[in-house]
Design goal:
This protein has 234 residues and is mainly beta. Helices cover 12% and strands 50% of the residues. A hairpin with a 6-residue loop joins strand 4 and strand 5.
Length: 234
């Protein structure tokens, strides 16, 4: 247990330190917020059919630290379900999750990435007399995802991840196979951008004048005017 928590802390420190080292102030889309929803499923000693699919949803913030590296902070609500016997046990989770996303390619509007991170969460379990209270746990995870740019201010975020839990009792069995869960989510991200970033102009307007294009302003053998000297009257 202690060893897994140390690994969790080391991973969180690694991603934060990498983020600070790769800050890029020229990134056009720095910060965004979003909402997501999806499903997750417990992977444990019990069979696949004894672990029903459960819902998850949340809100998140995204911060682009460089063209390739992104930090995401997320919180929300989720469930893990187990039915090894005649009753269904539901773990209700409130997580706080930090992850780093590294873009591996870019093709048009698509930007696939790999992600690694960790979370901590408080939880309760229904129909489990041995665990009647609220507890805390955590996980480390890795996964894949992609960003689909819809407009300069909106994008679709798709993720899938595998979470390694630090305890072994979410399936109500304590055997050799460590508990884990898989999660798949889809979210919509809104990016905060300055107006100047969204409205790129080919030239700066000058009262009563318009600066010529580079082709029109190119000097000729019989002219000594420079590009800065050439204007076209409106």
């Amino acid at each position: 247990m202690n060893g897994k928590k140390i690994v969790l802390l080391v991973l969180m420190f690694f991603f934060v330190s990498q983020a600070v080292a790769t800050i890029n102030e020229n990134s056009p889309r720095k910060f965004g917020i979003g909402v997501d929803g999806g499903a997750q499923k417990l992977i444990a000693d019990i069979s696949i059919k004894d672990a029903p699919v459960a819902p998850t949803f949340g809100v998140y913030g995204i911060f682009h630290l460089s063209p390739k590296f992104t930090l995401q902070l997320r919180t929300g609500y989720g469930q893990l379900k187990a039915q090894p016997w005649d009753f269904l046990s539901t773990t209700k989770m409130i997580p706080l999750e930090l992850s780093g996303q590294y873009r591996i390619a870019k093709s048009g509007r698509w930007a696939p990435f790999v992600s690694f991170g960790a979370n901590v969460f408080s939880f309760t379990q229904t129909n489990n007399p041995s665990n009647p209270g609220r507890y805390f746990d955590g996980s480390v995870f890795g996964g894949l995802g992609t960003n689909l740019t819809i407009t300069p201010q909106y994008s679709l975020l798709l993720t899938a991840s595998y979470h390694f839990l630090t305890t072994n009792q979410f399936d109500l069995w304590e055997r050799s196979f460590p508990d884990a869960y898989v999660s798949a989510r889809a979210g919509i991200t809104y990016y905060f951008q300055r107006k100047a970033t969204l409205e790129k102009k080919p030239y700066e307007l000058i009262p009563g004048k318009v600066i010529a294009t580079r082709e029109q302003a190119a000097p000729t053998p019989s002219s000594t005017k420079t590009e800065d000297d050439v204007y076209l009257r409106v």
